[in-house]
Amino acid sequence: MSRIGVLLKQAFHAVAGLKIAVVGLVLGFVLVLVGTLDQVNLGIYYTVKVYFKSWWVYWHGWPVFPGGMSVGLLLGVNLVLAHIKRFQWSMKKMGIWLIHSSLLVLLIGGAISGFVSQESQMIIREGDTQWYSESVHDTELVVMQAQGETTRVFQIDMANVQANDSIVMGPLVITVESRLNNAILRLIDDANRWQSAQGAGRYFSVEPRPVDRRPDARNHMALWVRIHTQDGTDLGRFLVSSWLNHPQWVGDRATIALRPTRYYYPYAVTLMEFTHRQHPGTTIPSYFSSDVIVTDGSFRQPFHIYMNHPLRYQGVTYFQASFDDADTVSILQLVKNPVWWSPYFACLVLGVGLLWHMVLMMGRLR
After folding, report:
1. Same domain, 183 and 251
2. Mind listing the pLDDT tens digit for each residue in 290-338?
3. Please, what is the Cα angle at 51 between 49 and 56, to 5 degrees?
4. How many domains does the structure of the chain reveal?
5. Segments of 279-315 assigned E as strands
6. What does the pLDDT read at residue 336?
7. 244, 185 contact by CB (below 8 A)
8. Distance between CA atoms of 143 and 89, rounded to whole angstroms?
9. Boundary (domain end) residue, out of 202, 231, 262
């Protein structure tokens, strides 16, 4: 056998060994412990993102500890290789095989869910119709270009856009000069103060704020951008912020805006009535619900959404989350997770494996 073959065989036996499994479990324990303690500072959303939906945990820009994705991959590979190394097909081993298979399904399902699951909110007023939801934490930059009677929409997620980046969006080339993850705008008295700026930048100053990490908090991103056309014409320096409720005109036929990331659906939801009841003598909600109508082409169906009884339609689950504006606005929490079934399936396989193993051991004892 060649030297490379010997090294590969040694690596295979090492990765499939029990020591790697113990290392992976210890790393997972430390990760869960530190992430749980740091949740006080980061909040639930950022804790999951920093510790469990990442390959590495960074400290001051340096990777210092394997993230949840790395630990899960290590445990998954170890489990698969260990089965390949010790494969013995027999009815006596069936229970162990099922138990380990359930753990593998749980690991793979959790990894896929971390990449593809999507959570958002649909804020809808009584009598209104909505066909999109908005992210609570993510922000997108949007350029809308009018073309006759139609409008072209260009969107880009701001998660990976940093200062000094240049983005081509339809007819515009946008250069990000500075970025603030959370800031509010304050109206300035002297409009001549920012003569070099265009749009909202001539009338507002930017006040940075620390990122609010509470689960239900909304941070307002702010950008100073320089905008050019595709042929190089300088259109000026603009201030865009999700704090503003309307887009700004850039030139004659295009607008630009920062807003919560939107997810569009091929059907519409109409809120017919929102109901809110409180415990007598208190302001504590005892019951709140939404009566909606889903319109999907010729399909039109009413649904009643209330606490612990969500609406499930086309892979999206609608939960009754909250309400606003004198009980006329319903806030629905939307969850889209194509592998929602994986924990249930893993628990079922685990239960069958444990039962099989228990029956087999009882037979041996008899």
Report:
1. yes
2. 999 999 988 899 999 988 899 999 989 999 988 887 778 899 999 998 8
3. 105
4. 3
5. 285-296, 299-306, 311-313
6. 92
7. yes
8. 60
9. 262
